[in-house]
Specification:
3 domains, CenT-Element_Derived, Brinker_DNA-bd, alpha/beta, HTH CENPB-type domain-containing protein, HTH_CenpB_DNA-bd_dom, six-stranded mixed beta sheet, disordered C terminus, Arc Repressor Mutant, subunit A, Nucleotidyltransferase, domain 5, disordered N terminus
């Protein structure tokens, strides 16, 4: 006998039956080691069907189960017919706020019927708004509640498919020519990976009203983040171009260059300022001692006569990616911009759901400050690993192979960091990872 409890049971049976203690011990040990069985929904439905013809007791004998289980399953027949055939049990908790969840469910159905996308964040924000309207106290609408709510309503997250860039008919030939040009120039000038640079603009907006959920009223306020990185994994500081006539009078974090113009977009003057203030910070860039290669797309601001002249003066060669081939040849587009925007999205979600907010007299929530957004940009860019950057250059065919010993991120880097853990992350990651993020709603 392995436990004191087992010995007590054995003595009780011994007194009642007169059997030997050893016989009772063997019987009880066998009973204790018996495992509980979990039955699939299709098995339970078969048992229920049998009861209709032969009754509960006969069905229990036929399927070798307890009669009480048959009675329980018959009460759950409607639910069993709605779940997967392999469903084992019903362990979910009942909803605590039935009316709130019913109203929220109808709102989600209306949004999807209208063709509007609904994310888990908008669901949580709408739930909090409904709770305030219904005067429900202590309702937080956290990620785990959202996860359970979606399971109760049988909602799933739909990933948004992106429209692929149309490749030109002779794209294979153009790919080969561009890569050959870069390889020849790198070999002839003995350009090191630390002097092979790619730059690109990432357009963002303060608000993207994807649904009827609240916004901060800045849907048309756009700005641009200019990113630059080297083939050895090093990164240049980001430059942010805000859409305004003057620079914001705020205290900005270190590690970011702040600019402003009327369009909030890259033009010839902004490109020249990027060369003077950002590109010059590459290794040895101040004295232009080492030959360099600057890779960029065919945007007009990159190709003006004054820009080309300034690039030449910096002992640098400009490699312009042919139109329509940035997704194949631009390292930032291939493997950096997307995880960067995912990190921005995570920062925005944390601020939107947990941050301290101020409101106008009309009750509209104020947008995040310029300085706050720049903090998100600095943090997101700093957390992009060297391995991610190097892999992007290798995939673009700019460098022959990924150097050994380079820090490498797992595939999870492109997932949404810092928001959810464990099983919840599997649900919420799919929403963000597979859709573009172009701003802060």
């Amino acid at each position: 006998m392995r436990t004191l409890k087992g010995e007590v049971w054995a003595l009780i049976v011994y007194k009642r039956t007169g059997m030997s203690v050893m016989q009772n011990i063997v019987v009880l040990t066998t009973l204790k080691m018996a495992k509980r069985h979990a039955y699939e929904a299709q098995f339970k439905l078969k048992a229920i069907s049998d009861t209709e013809e032969h009754g509960n007791r006969a069905a229990a004998r036929e399927f070798k189960i307890n009669e009480s289980m048959v009675r329980k399953w018959r009460k759950l027949e409607n639910e069993l017919r709605q779940v997967k055939k392999t469903q084992l049990s019903f362990r979910r908790h009942k909803a605590r706020w039935l009316e709130l969840e019913e109203r929220l469910k109808q709102w989600i159905i209306e949004q999807r019927t209208s063709g509007r996308s609904v994310s888990t964040v908008t669901i949580r924000l709408k739930a909090v708004t409904l709770a305030e309207e219904m005067k429900i106290e202590h309702f937080q609408g956290g990620p785990s509640w959202c996860f359970r709510f979606m399971k109760r309503c049988h909602f799933s997250i739909r990933t948004r498919t992106m429209v692929a860039q149309q490749l030109p008919a002779d794209y294979n030939e153009k790919l080969a020519i561009f890569r050959s040009y870069c390889s020849k120039h790198i070999a002839d000038k003995h350009i090191q990976p630390s002097h092979i640079t790619n730059m690109d603009e990432v357009p963002l907006t303060f608000d993207i009203p994807v649904s009827a959920i609240r916004t901060t009223g800045h849907e048309k306020s756009s700005f641009t983040v200019v990113l630059g990185c080297h083939a050895n994994g090093q990164k240049l500081p980001p430059m942010v171009i805000f859409k305004r006539k003057t620079l914001p009078k705020e205290k900005f974090p270190a590690g970011v260059i702040i600019k402003a113009n009327e369009k909030g977009w890259m033009d010839e003057e902004m490109m020249k300022e990027w060369l003077r203030e950002v590109y010059v910070r590459r290794p040895g860039g101040f004295f232009h001692a080492s030959p360099s290669l600057l890779i960029c797309d065919s945007m007009r601001a990159h190709l003006t006569a004054d820009v080309k002249k300034q690039v030449k003066q910096m002992n640098c060669e400009l490699a312009v990616i042919p139109g329509g081939l940035t997704k194949e040849l631009q390292p930032l587009d291939i493997g950096v911009n997307r995880p960067f925007k995912v990190r921005l999205r995570a920062a925005w979600e944390r601020w939107m759901t947990d941050g301290d907010h101020s409101f106008t007299k009309s009750g509209r929530q104020r947008r995040a400050s310029y300085a706050t957004i720049c903090e998100w940009i600095v943090d997101a860019w700093a957390n992009m690993s060297a391995g991610t950057v190097v892999r992007a250059f290798a995939k673009a065919g700019i460098i022959s192979e990924e150097p050994h010993g380079t820090e490498s991120d797992s595939d999870s880097e492109e997932s949404e960091p810092g928001m959810f853990d464990g099983d919840l992350a599997q649900l919420f990651n799919s929403e963000t990872e597979d859709e573009d993020f172009d701003g802060f709603d």
